[in-house]
Amino acid sequence: MRPGPWSALERAAYDTCEPDVAALLVHPGETLSGLAVLAAAVVSWHEVHRSPVAGPARFLPAILALLSAASMLFHATFAAVFQQLDLAAIPLFTGLLLAAALVHGGYVERDRWPALFAVFAGCGAVLPFIATVAGYVVVTAQAAALIRLWWKLARTQPAIRTDLRRTVVLLLPAAALLALGHAGIACTGAGSAWAHLAQPHIAWHLASAAACVFIVRIELALERDAVWLRS
Known about the structure:
This protein is mainly α. It has a single domain (about 30-225), classed as Rhopdopsin 7-helix transmembrane proteins, CATH 1.20.1070. It contains eight helices and no strands. Helix 2 (about 35-50) packs antiparallel against helix 3, helix 4 (about 80-105) runs parallel beside helix 6 and helix 5 runs antiparallel to helix 6 (about 130-155).
């Protein structure tokens, strides 16, 4: 049972390397590193507003800001319910991009993307509250399907190739660090301040936040090619 003001709440099902602190922020390093996603939201907002498109990408900055808030709430409390909420929020991002990618790939009509998004995000939001592990599974599956679709699109859409490579280079090692952290492997600085500064989960937050900027740029490039123009 973790100490501090959140001790009445059930502890998160899947641990990370950062040791608990008996304070308002149970995992201060992981909590504050969630601000990187908020920074990505701000950068993405500027990217979207410089673009002539008005497709699904216009919702991504707000979703990233929500993801940042959910992540920080989870790590601040390290409570099971907020871990589930954190996982439930991520399919808003992956689900929207996956729905859009199916449109870009010609698999569905453009006016069907809101319905697809609702299905992907809705299922992803419900499953973590049924079983936490299901949240990880659905997010991983959506992300893998999205990357596969983007690699196929990159053959005919050269504008996304550079940002897609950058995304993969950032996300694959970061995802490995995420898994290692949850497995209690590669933990650093036990018993010192480094335990709150250099941990796999913190590296995941920083790398995935950087990748999110490139991801938004990929979606914007695809929408420009699809002529999703502002009216």
